[in-house]
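Dear colleague,

Following up on yesterday's call, I've attached the two folding results inline so they're easy to grep. Please treat them as preliminary; we haven't cross-checked anything against experimental data yet. The first protein's sequence and structure tokens come first.
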Amino acid sequence: MNTGTRHRLFVPCAVLATTVMLAPAPAGAQSRVPDGEWHHFGRDAANTKYSPLDDITAENFTDLEVAWRWTSLSRAVAEEHDRIRPSAMKSSPLMADGLVYVSTALGQAAALDAGTGETVWTYDPRIYDDMDRPPNMGWHHRGLSYWKDGESGDARIFMSNHDLKLVALDARTGELYPDFGEGGYVDLTQGYNREIDASRMTYSSPVAVAGDTIITGSIIQDTYITLREASPGDVRAYDARTGEMKWIFHTIPQGDEFGVDSWQNESWRYSGHTNVWSYMAVDEELGLVYLPTGTPSNDWYGGMRPGDNLFAESIVAVDIETGQREWHFQAVHHGLWDWDFPTGPNLVDITVDGREVKALAQVSKQAFTYVFDRATGEPVWPIEERPVPQGNVPGEWYSPTQPFPTKPPPFDRQGIAIDDVIDFTPELKAEALELVSSRARFGPIFSPPVLRGAETPFIQVPGAGGGANWQGAAVDVETGRLFVSSSSTLIVVEVVEYEAPATVGYFTDPWGVGLPGPRGLPLFKPPYKRVTALDLTTGDRAWMQPHGDGPRNHPALAHLDLPPLGGGGGISSGPLVTPSLLIMNHGGRGYEDTAAGSRTISAYDKATGEHLGSVDLPAPPGGNPVTYRHEGRQYLLVAVGGGGGTAELIALALPEEPAS
């Protein structure tokens, strides 16, 4: 039986007698960022990805041109060292006080003049001298964090890095602060209450900034696990001035802490992960930081950790000053699908049935959106516990139910059935069905992994890449709409037995594999990438559009008159919202429509979803787009390229009017 807190139905706060009536807040109440700047991964601490700048409009978007380019520091290193192979440039830059701040895949940082792109300072800890490849996903880094002291004006750039250090850099000079931590950095391997394996840990996401507190999660390698013992994904907070640790939150409860009974057989003592590898959101008015947690060790088998496993795959609201849990919601009980929360939630003030709500919207890999009152944790609409398929892997523990939001509707494909198979032509459909019949079977969402050789495995949809991924969603603070970037992905997962001395029992070999469709095409129908607008005031879908145009030029499809397909390989970019536009990157590989392109940045009408046009980029984009204004000119920034040879930061702007 299940242990720990479990509710059959999560009742929306609209029908609770204890509803807290919150006074309306002005649009952007969560943001203390000047209108023309971008201080956090999602622009503001609320992770809205909304900018009030409106110089770039539907009428002039396609007039954008390259204003400046900056070559990533990683390119020179990769050219000099054959063993160093950076991944795509995924950094989402910041802009404050006339400087753009950007990280590289190799854990370097730089400040650039916001008007010209000229380098002002660089920081290179030369991690690559002592490391061929960081654990988990290798050389990649997603961005920096900005903090400014309201009294002294001291401005700092914080960076958690591959070398397991947190550094504070002077925002104007790039110099380390010698009195921060020990000699300028905090050793992030210290401060745990349990033993850790530092060789399987890394850092590459921006830390959260909440007042004078810096909050960091971690990345823990979740492949090739043979032992049940693993490093915990505890979240820790540090003083922004001194680097002194302020608190630690155990994402796997310890001792007599709340939720420890959801780890049966005292599995809390040795289980690990449940980490926050992505970024977080902060509400300083409520004094809360919101932690999106990941899957426990390991991703596909949990027989050694029976129970629901709080606080894995949960949203946890934690007091900024004390680290105490205020509320939580678990989206996946006893996770077996690698459906960790890959992105921070979005905070927005909305009106629902005439009632003002300080809301939190969390998108997920499984294509659900969970919406809560962020002060109380009560769902805005009911979330129901529904029965899900059970498995037969020896020793496994299965949750009989999983949470299903009743609103908003899913924003991408969930589960797969015969009617979902590609059917552009009868021949392609027949080939697709033949591929499935020999290797896998259809099933609904939450179909579990199976033991190799015992039965035919399910096709898992969405796969471990989502649905939504780290690029996340954006909110329109004016209308309460949520814009979600998503990809339709699938994998097939079988677990294999590990013999002694392995203690984990079962694991995937090597991790879970994709299932190609006929002639290299996707197995299922389009769209393969999409952008969806959800109305958070009603819980309904406002519109959905394919993003990109998929494999239109494939020889089997080139003669067909097909609608937009969406897709192009990889996962979608995060959206950027302005008063009139929704802006998204598009990068892909394989068979692409040359008009839509696989190296573009696109604009949509945020009210209708109409595609307004695209601008070509010199290489596939890897980071989220951001925007700022400098000396009266609005810029659009995007990181592109990778692999060491093409990584750079591109600034787009409208043509300057000639001087009179």
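Below is the second protein, in the same order (sequence, then structure):
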Amino acid sequence: MNLTLLERACAACGISTEYRDVWGKTHRVPADTCRALLAAMGVAAGSDAELEQALAAREARDWRRVLAPVLVVRADAPELAVPVTLPAPALGRRHSWSLVEEQGARHGGEFEPAGLPAIGERRISGAGFVRFALRLPAVPPPGYHRLEIGALDAPGEARAAAPLIVVPARCYLPPGMANGRVWGPMVNLYALRSERNWGIGDYTDLRGVMELAARCGAAVVGVNPLHALFPHDPEHASPYSPASRQLLNVLYLDPEGVPDFAECEPARERLASAEFQARLRAVRGAERLEYRAVAELKFEILERIYTHFRDRHLARGTERAAAFRAFQQAGGESLRLASLFYALQEHLGASDARVWGWRSWPEPYRDPRTPEVAQYAREHVERTEYHDYLQWNAELQLDAVGKRSLELGLRVGLYQDLAVGVDPGGAEAWGAQSLYAGAVSIGCPPDDFNLKGQSWGLPPLLPDQLTAAAYAPIVALLRENMRDAGALRIDHVMGLMRLFWVPAGELPARGAYVSYPFEDLLGIVALESQRNLCIVIGEDLGTLPDGLAERLRAAGVLSYRLLYFEREPDGAFRAPQRYPAQALAAVSTHDLPTLRGFWQGRDLDLRSALKLFPSEELRQRQIVERAQDRARLLVALEAEKLLPPGASVHAIPGPEVTHDFMVAVHRFLARTPCRLLMVQPEDLFGQLDQVNLPATTAVEHPNWRHRLPLELEQWEMDERWRSFCSALNAERGPLAAPAPAPVRAPDAT
């Protein structure tokens, strides 16, 4: 079958022209969607002539390169065969190759292209090009290396060069975890109450949860994404729509835990004042998290501490000042641009709240490389360094959490979460605009829980640009998020293989899947996992591409298994022994109802009230299905002899969910062979509403604003917590003595 020009262009750019939804129905992608996505990739697609030209230019680019922009090979590959492309006249000339390993070792040799078997030929603008496989003697060890090729008779010519990344076959798994099963709490840090925090959970609270977990038999503490948000607009609260995934959320700073606080008399006096203490009591006692009030309190004190730091340390060149300068240097360009972004946003938006995000800034400031931005940076060093200072202290406080988990001997320790994307108006998108597609959002087609589909408002990374950058942005992202973690959850792990792109202004159902260099990206995840001694969990909910589950399993990535979705073909809940061992198990997640909310149908009530059902027929069907699910869950518990006292499969209990029922459901999951079991405090303490209701805003539902009912200091004395710990320790078995803390590999140069 002959492909149309549009189909050929889509195939060349990795755009699928059809997709299958969760119900098995195939959808043809509209032609205008295809053209919009091509345009977002920088491919002119307005006419057949433009498409012809774009396809020709793409082919010419690929054949005129001597080496690909980056080469990724498996460490267990039987040989290293590198594709090399040369103009036909160069085939008879002697060439040399040079491989420089990451640690400095050098290897080299000579070859004559004419003596190697060709694997492809092409004529571009009348000139001939030949591609062949250059076989090198051995595959170097895992790491980031460099390959160079050049003609021997042209020493003045520039040599072709490309990064050569050698990756391991599998991700890291700690010693003793191959057959071990552990559990721990999965906390939303902002939701934590404590006697000492300032109305929002902070890094000191996270350390406290780590210590509590260790005392109570847990081996892991999970947390929501800690990515940097928007200090100028603290109400922009979703941790999955961050300003930057390489920096930390400074609203989680504990001001009193910053070393300069103890030296800063103005900050201590302000904190002790009656007026400040009254405001502090108000945010601590608020039913919902009041982001703006919390931010005003924290930044008022942090500003004073920073002024003291400049006067006491930077001005005098103290040891602490030297540590700060070293942090700035290590942060490099990404830190510099992010802090510059925050300072500019404060400056440009000070008099107009509509100036939100770099795309609304005056034109000269929208590109970080303009003379106007450079001038601002020179004239506002103190303000940009304020944001460096906040990041520095956030990193120090999170580092303390990671170190504490090692001291406690936790088998996993801190489990962090990597969001799938960034806010289009934020620091990361501003500083690396060439990496992101414009006028497009990632999302997902309709499914059972989001019947209209979703468009998340996050710009996708451009596959070609990622490759051109030799995957450096991905490497940096993984390192930053694995540094203090014993486990990392990759949100929407399908994004390593494909993402669903939705053109601006279109319904999600009119989107299309775009492919990514999956094997390369998965290999880099495994390499950074091994170097950082970090387990990888892939959030693989939803419609999976064919073959993805098998590849993730072979690479040692843990699957993400939720009770609500683990079903047999007839709808029955899957028995514990039928769960996979290479997985994390949990009842629910932030985008789904709590256990109490699921049982009571609270999510169905909310979606009905907010008109999120596309039809009354679907609403009624899900109401009936939920009633069936309640019966199915009781049957599953009965099969495991876990029905709580007084419960019966013959009489569905009323809307109230007892604590015994909560424990029974978690014991059910604890019996699975899954390596990790995560428990949400929202379930433990019987919270009704889910953390986030997709397809809504904070006006419609208090997303990311729920707070836990009990202060952290009281958990260990609470009978609900104690009975949960006792039950899960009994089901999962006693913890073995922790192995000595391993030493992480240094960052690549």
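For the second protein, one point worth flagging: Residues 76-167 form a domain with the Immunoglobulin-like fold (CATH 2.60.40).

Best wishes,
A.L.
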